[in-house]
Write a structure and sequence with these properties.
Elements lengths: L3 H15 L4 H8 L3 H14 L20 H16 L7 H13 L6 H10 L26 E9 L5 E9 L5 E6 L4 H11 L1
Antiparallel strand pairs: 1-2, 2-3
Helix pairs in contact: 1-2, 4-5, 5-6
Length: 195
């Protein structure tokens, strides 16, 4: 917004200009540039005296704003993905899903997706830290004891993979192997690598 002194300078400069005082003299009196005076003369010619007030700097057009249709699509996709029993429903998965639905490179950025989810109350709230259970050996051993498990995952547009984990219960060191099968040869290779 205008401060009072600046608005008075504009009015003074325009009054001097209207009385026919040379531009150089006007600029000396108001201590402003030639471009400044030209701007306010143009404004006066277009909008009369009310043109001397500053305009709002708020943008009239937001080219990066997404339409209501895109926002609705983000919300609907998030809700659909969250209802599935298996799969991801985070911003990256949403973006990938929107690209597959035909938006291609026009799909919203991850920051935009997060902003829309937060605005609609669909973003995950940070949860309290989970206490980790470390199984203790039932008896004291002189050697090292390992716990082993495996799980199966489906990659996006990819194969089914198996992930083997070994945990050294004494040092808490963990090793992991990702394989395309769960054969005994794969398991043996994982165990030998982790030991």
């Amino acid at each position: 917004m205008d401060n009072r002194d600046e608005l008075q300078r504009r009015r003074q400069a325009i009054r001097l200009w209207l009385t026919g005082i040379p531009t150089r003299e006007i600029l000396r009196r108001v201590q402003r540039s030639r471009a400044w005076l030209s701007k306010w003369r143009r404004r006066l010619q277009r909008q009369a005296w009310r043109g001397l007030r500053s305009r709002s700097r708020r943008p009239r057009h937001r080219p990066a704003a997404y339409s209501r249709r895109i926002v609705r699509l983000i919300v609907q996709t998030r809700r659909r993905l969250a209802r599935q029993r298996v799969g991801l429903s985070g911003p990256r998965a949403l973006q990938r899903e929107l690209r597959q639905r035909g938006l291609g490179q026009r799909a919203p950025s991850l920051a935009t997706i997060k902003r829309v989810l937060r605005a609609h109350g669909l973003s995950a709230q940070p949860s309290a830290p989970v206490l980790v259970y470390w199984p203790a050996p039932l008896t004291t051993l002189d050697g090292t004891l390992h716990a082993l498990d495996w799980t199966c995952r489906y990659l996006q547009h990819g194969p089914k993979v198996y992930v083997f984990h070994s945990l050294n219960l004494r040092t808490r060191a963990c090793s992991q192997t990702i394989a395309s099968d769960k054969s005994s040869a794969t398991l043996r290779a994982h165990v030998l690598t982790s030991w």
